[in-house]
Amino acid sequence: MASSVNPTVRRRRLGQELRKLRELKGMTAEEVAERLLVSQSKISRLENGRRSISQRDVRDLCGVYGVEDHRIVDSLMQMAKESRQQGWWHAFGDIPYSVYIGLETDAASLRVYEASLVPGLLQTPNYASAVTEGSWPEATTADIERRVQVRMRRQERITDPENPLRLWAVIDESALRRIVGNREIMAEQMRQLVQFSLEPHITVQVLPYDVGAHPGMYGKFSILEFNDPQDASTVYLEGITSDLYLEKPNDVQTYSVMYEHLRMQALNAEHSRQFIDRVAEEWAAEL
């Protein structure tokens, strides 16, 4: 469940405040880096919340920006302290997409398009294990178990009875047809998809093959939105060795429009449920 202090979100908000102070001072990131004898990339990473920030960093930056109000400095120092706390996901060791998990944990809604697999938040343990084993050939049994545990813990956001994550998933038909693990695992996964789709806060739509070309052909993406207006909507693009987070309004708008086109081209929720149910029967037919 989302905790009262989410270190990822604290870093984002702190970075936003530091960027505002720099812009009010009329300085570029390069100028600040020169004053502090650090790299420009460090200043950029601090401002976009992708790098851990220390209280010393905050003190030094406030000094460069000429912040004299001790209440502002103290508030920023406290945010820096909270941003260095560990989220629940840190207990599982080095998770490559930990920044994303922090954002997902605090998000109010998530729109996701998946082209080749069932979205992580909707996966069964068996499907998640088979996906991890197939996509990470060098993974040990312990590695796979750890990734599955993290994925199941993430699912608490959509099963939280008090504050469930609003999830909208558009899934390409290929994700339902590609065998992951074995036919039994696929049948089980399809049945779980149907059950999740019955929840009032979860919408699942299938994008069938016969729609032809569509905006999602460039690859999967997710759009996270937050209740707090201080937290900008974010587009998440997952990569093999690194991930990309887009927060500029124009970028978010572009992907939001793409998502609307995908939703319109996909089967509606009821027809998607019927489609997935038929696929489940097909997978189970030859067990």
TrEMBL record:
PROSITE patterns in alphabetical order: HTH_CROC1
HTH cro/C1-type domain boundaries: 18-73
Native source species: Streptomyces klenkii
One Pfam family, short name: HTH_31
Protein's name according to its UniProt entry: XRE family transcriptional regulator
InterPro entries, per the entry: Cro/C1-type_HTH (IPR001387), DUF5753 (IPR043917), Lambda_DNA-bd_dom_sf (IPR010982)
MF annotations from Gene Ontology: DNA binding
